[in-house]
Amino acid sequence: MSAGGGYQEYAFVAELYDHVVLYRDRTDVAFFVLAAQQSGGPVLEVGCGTGRVLIPTARAGIEIVGLDLSSHMLAVCRARLEQEPEAVRSRVRLIQGDMRAFELRPGFALATLPFRPFQHLLTVEDQLACLASIRRHLVVGGRLILDLFNPSLDFLANVKLGEETGEEPEFQSPDGRRVHRRLRMLACDRATQVNQHELIYHVTHPDGREERLVQAFPLRYLFRFEAEHLLARAGFEVEHVYGGYDKQPFGTTYPGELILLARRSA
Ligand SMILES: C[S@@+](CC[C@H](N)C(=O)[O-])C[C@H]1O[C@@H](n2cnc3c(N)ncnc32)[C@H](O)[C@@H]1O
């Protein structure tokens, strides 16, 4: 099991990431691009990965710094940026670093963590260290968008440990590998709110050879008021709590998302 989501330990994850249908079809990009435009920039994207959100943000005319722990994810992001016009590339800076402790030039109007990188932090100490690092880099009044999933109590109560579950559409990578991905939960610790996951990639190569690749990682879930208290403790005022990327109020769908928009207090 690895911290950081396994994005550094398992290079295959970065290779396949942009082709996973559930990631490719996420409906969050317009939400983050609009927030970036409304902030005026510059934006700090923490856990920027392969640039799924970062590149559309730069295309929209906003300066953005992407921070990520994984050299593999950043390499894919760099390769994607090479396909972009110079004007887009000039708005982007990528940094390999840990969200719990990083030092960049401060002065960001907005910090974002799209698609839940914050949930790779397993302790309150790590969460507070990350929020303190982000806060130091924001202007006073600058904003933070914390993007989390709302834990489903039904899922937690009924989870079948050790069983492969989850029907996802099969996808194909550009080199012709066909991939069918499934989820296996190995442990759910209700005291620490840390679940041990395996994402299992059943790969069929163009020559028919089959391979089973596993991304094993722990993930911590947070509840709504816990996240609000954490932000208050870290020097943020929570302005909105959304249940989805259309800005529907938290709780209008269940479990929905848990998206917090907060402002750096003075
Ligand atoms: C689910 S991906 C999200 C990537 C991207 N934001 C997106 O929306 O597609 C989580 C990302 O968080 C990064 N990450 C995990 N732990 C990190 C840490 N401690 N510091 C910086 N990045 C981290 C991973 O390397 C990975 O790229």
Give the terminus-to-terminus CA distance: 39 Å
Give the names of the bound compounds.
S-adenosylmethionine
Q: Helical segment tally?
A: 9
Quick check: average pLDDT?
97
Which regions contain 5 or more consecutive residues with pLDDT less than 50?
none
Task: Describe the protein in words.
- The protein starts with 10 loop residues before the first helix and ends with a strand.
- The mean pLDDT is 97.
- It has helices at residues 11-17, 21-24, 29-39, 54-59, 71-82, 86-89, 124-137, 153-158, 224-233; strands at residues 43-46, 64-68, 92-96, 108-113, 138-149, 164-165, 171-172, 178-189, 194-204, 210-220, 236-242, 257-264.
- The radius of gyration is 18 Å and the shape is globular.
- Helix 4 (54-59) links the parallel strand 1 (43-46) and strand 2 (64-68).
- It has 266 residues and is of the alpha/beta class.
- It binds S-adenosylmethionine.
- The site of S-adenosylmethionine has 21 residues, from strand 2.
